[in-house]
Amino acid sequence: MSESFYRENAKKAIADDKLQAAINLIQDRFGTGLLNLWKEKPEMDELRNRVKAAKDKNLKNLDILLAKLADSVEARGGHVFFAETAEEARLYTIELAKRRHVKMVVKGKSMLSAEIKIDQALADAGIEHWETDLGEYLVQLDKDIPSHIIAPAVHMNREHIGDLLAKRIGTPLSYDPPALTLAARKALRRKFLKADMGITGCNIAVAETGQVSLVSNEGNIRMTGTMPPIHVALMGMERVVANMQEHKDMLQLLTLGAAMQKISTYVSFNGGPVAEGCPDGPQEFHLIIIDNGRSKILADETFSEILSCIRCGACLNVCPVYGKIGGHSYNRATYSGPIGAVIEPLFNGINAQADLCKGETLCGACLKVCPVKNNIPRMLLALREKLAYGDEKWDVEQQNPLEELAFRGVGEAMVSPRLWHTGEKVVRSIMKKKPHQNDMVTAMSGPGRAWTDDRDLPPIAEKSFARLWKEKLQNRPLPAEKKEDNSGKDEGEEK
Amino acid sequence: MSAGSSGTFNNSFLFNPMAKRKVSLFIQCLVDSMFPHVGEAMVTVFDRLGIPLEYPPGQTCCGQPSFNAGYQKEARKAALHFIELFEDSEDIVCPSGSCVSMVRHDYPELFKDSPKMQERARAVGKRCYEFSEYLVDQLGVSDCGATFRRKVTYHDSCHLYRNLGIDRQPRVLLNNVKELELIEMKDSTQCCGFGGTFSINYPEISTALVDEKIKNILASGADVVCGCDMSCLMNIKGRLSRLGETVEVVHIAEILAGSEK
Description:
The complex is a heterodimer.
Chain A: H1 5-15, H2 17-40, H3 44-60, H4 62-75, E1 79-83, H5 86-99, E2 104-107, H6 111-115, H7 118-124, E3 128-131, H8 134-141, H9 158-169, H10 177-194, E4 197-200, E5 204-206, E6 211-216, H11 220-226, E7 230-236, E8 240-241, H12 244-259, E9 266-270, E10 284-290, H13 294-298, H14 314-318, H15 320-325, H16 337-348, H17 354-358, H18 365-369, H19 376-389, H20 401-414, H21 417-432, E11 436-437, E12 440-441, H22 449-452, H23 465-471
Parallel strand pairs in A: 1-10, 2-3, 2-4, 4-7, 5-8, 7-10
Antiparallel strand pairs in A: 5-6, 6-9, 11-12
Chain B: E1 23-25, H1 29-33, H2 36-49, E2 53-54, H3 64-69, H4 72-86, E3 91-94, H5 97-110, H6 115-126, E4 128-130, H7 131-138, E5 151-154, H8 158-163, H9 168-175, E6 181-182, H10 198-201, H11 203-220, E7 224-227, H12 230-243, E8 248-251, H13 252-257
Parallel strand pairs in B: 1-2, 1-3, 3-4, 5-6, 5-7, 7-8
């Protein structure tokens, strides 16, 4: 197998000590923290199951809920647009911006905005746009992409940030986090005051009330949704809940999952444009409900579970592979980590994202930590199955026919003990000829080489257990048959 | 029932009707071919406890490598072979958590389109146990009468810990080994990076993960690392050997079979 983009990036990330230290910190604090919380508070299990059940139910009734949501939003004076594709969502936004002569856009942190590539569309239309989440702002200044769903700039350390702000916005060189934050805040305030349009995502939309809820810890999203005259909220079509009770449950899991917070510093309920008696807010509110591949996922019962994801990013914080390779190694996709490994292939092609499907150990930590218990390992296996044999429904080409042949051969041996043990003999004799040190094989060729490049390999034993059993163990002298005595108590004294 | 604690062995199994059940050894491929002494150690432990044993001939591989690589058809064939082999067994005991997880949890999934086969898979899966789990939960054994004069740290293998929920059982057994000092390492439940074909397809990531594991093993100060899964242990052993580290790697059965004085 030639070195893929994924592996090349992974190697670089592994060699980057600063990145390793930064990810370690976030994983130790949030990942281990959340796992411990679930363990220490088993009563949380009920909440998790309740949210998952609500998600399940809502996904099954999505058409009805979305229609209700649209009605509720419109009743409050908002506009609703259903975008089937990313392109439709971009076009709607850009046309609206042009119509209203928008010159500058501020953005609240939104993964979906990255998914539909709105930034490029804004730039192409000559519209200035600024991220207002501190991490996203830094990433934008660095002309990079986020490397974590919740902590987009986790890959930057304070030295990097100090140099970046000095170079890009001319702040006095400093590596002091409060000073740097203040400098960014000052710069961002000016953008808020000037902006003609605010674009945010949508954490939860409530069908009953027609409100869009957004969580943040910096207050930037609230300003994005209220200060500019136009607020455009981008919403993945699966973000809808039926009522405020479901909203409350989901919000709790979201802030716990994202940052171990009982509640985030800000929770903004965006209920549409200003109205009589409600003087605060934008003049116009637009909700763009985006499909962009979600219907296809919803229609496949193997993968529909992934639409229950609340985008908290907890799976990134426990994944050992993410912990080593960081968010940028996932082919620089929008979503990284375990969640990215499932949805990116589904969104952007299973063949193109094969490394994301196969590049995990299936350790199961993501399943344990996921607030809604999404079975990511199961879905990774299903994706691998499509790569193994090819799949029409998802338009997957068989990835490696030779590999299938090999597995078929080994598969034959698995049902034929004689063939199996012959294979064992062959491998034993091959390995015997390879260099050894301290009873370990140090250099294999063929596929085994990938192992012995970094590790030694124990040899195949002279006699397998099956043979040992046949030759000596089955006729071994048994210890005196004292335990046949059923009377009990004395037996504890036996030695 | 507390009478068991008066004896040398702090066990309740002697009064447990389960003790009369016959154990069928499920020796996974890796132990069969590379680490047969682990199977022998299991036999020693069961003999000492007076548990009748059998070894159904014709065992190969449970199909997990195929399953994890996406080759479900091949995995299904291997599963059928296994089910036919062990269908008449009473209790099936294996020195590997991931193989037991495969049989218990994944076999029924593999046959979800065939209710009859799924039922057969479930029936076998229910009787299939990991070694330490069987000793502690089924037989009520906590002390195997072993002595091991070393400092030992324990690695929680992923499927053993997360899919089977086994973490207490091996520790109970190790804590009752005479003269053994159990030292917990940092992040004992973190994956060692093996992951089957993952270790071959993504060796650089796999190595980075096993290096993290080894860092924690060395920092614990233990001179032996033990676990319940030879695949993870082979990965750790292979890397320790390459690094020239002297920490020894053993399966828990080897410790429990030991009687060094």
